[in-house]
Amino acid sequence: MAYRRPGGDPTRFVVEAADEPQLNVGAFPRTGWLEAVAESDRERLRSALDGDAIDVTYRLTVDDEPTWVHERGSHTEGGDVVGYLFPAGERFESRRRLERERERLAEFASVVSHDLRNPLSVAVGNLELATELDGDAADERLNRARDALGWMDDLISDLLALAREGRTVEETTTTALEDVVRRAWRTVGDDADAALVVDGSLPTVDCDGSRLRQAFENLFRNSIEHGSAGGPPDSDDRSGPSVRIVVGPLQDGFYVADDGTGIPPEERDAVFEPGRSTADDGTGFGLAIVERIAEAHGWSVSVTEGRDGGARFDFTGVDCERCGDTDGATIGD
């Protein structure tokens, strides 16, 4: 399919000649092309259009289904981009999955070699000192070694979860999202100084229920650990629970928000990086696991500011039913 982008604008796409039967030209967006591109692929398309030669693949929603397409083009003297658009096909999707697995393996090896080395050194050093000491001094060193080994155990558990949750979901079942939320809250929130509110009627989603429950547990735990430090900076009323967590529907998914201290805008792009944590006792893998679970389902997750000033995590691209109502039903506190 031959095309032209006036002025190299990523939002505009003019079909010049269509002879590709695998692409339904009639279903292509006439305006707002970028809005039809998967959110996680938009920056890659923008960057490609800013380069000298355009050679980029991305997901485009056609007939309400995401389709991989391959765009190749070049800039004209007048500033337009002209080229061809092809269906990328299943082979490209398989290659992309393999590339992601290689990236995750490299990431896994990097974390193992770096993050485990420090507590191991602490444990070995304190054990060596303990052999040279007696009484309480030796016990103190042994306790420090025990703490370091416990930290290593937490890291290993989270690393294994990170690797496991990165696998693509092969089988899903139609699941009431509120049931998953309730089960996750019973595990994490029942004994916490926190309240959970369901903001309206949660949708029914196609998902792996156990893996989605893990995502909710990690998000709830993150809100409880980081949101219990006093709430948003401009909040004077902290009567009741230390943190209030809200789960609600979106037009194409759902969100989890709290009224805690929030995440500064300059730090939001990095919150899903493995090993990143602002808590002294955090491994830094909780939110990375959340992102892996979302990606394994073919969803996107992003972080922004909630309406109460805390952090809000939006899950979009979700195949769901009954999205939209809000009536603020409290589940627990």
TrEMBL record:
It catalyses: ATP + protein L-histidine = ADP + protein N-phospho-L-histidine. It comes from the Archaea. One of its GO terms (molecular function) is phosphorelay sensor kinase activity. Residues 207-321 form the Histidine kinase/HSP90-like ATPase domain. Keywords: Kinase, Phosphoprotein, Transferase, Two-component regulatory system. Residues 104-168 form the Signal transduction histidine kinase dimerisation/phosphoacceptor domain. Its EC number is 2.7.13.3. SUPFAM superfamilies: ATPase domain of HSP90 chaperone/DNA topoisomerase II/histidine kinase, Homodimeric domain of signal transducing histidine kinase. This is histidine kinase.
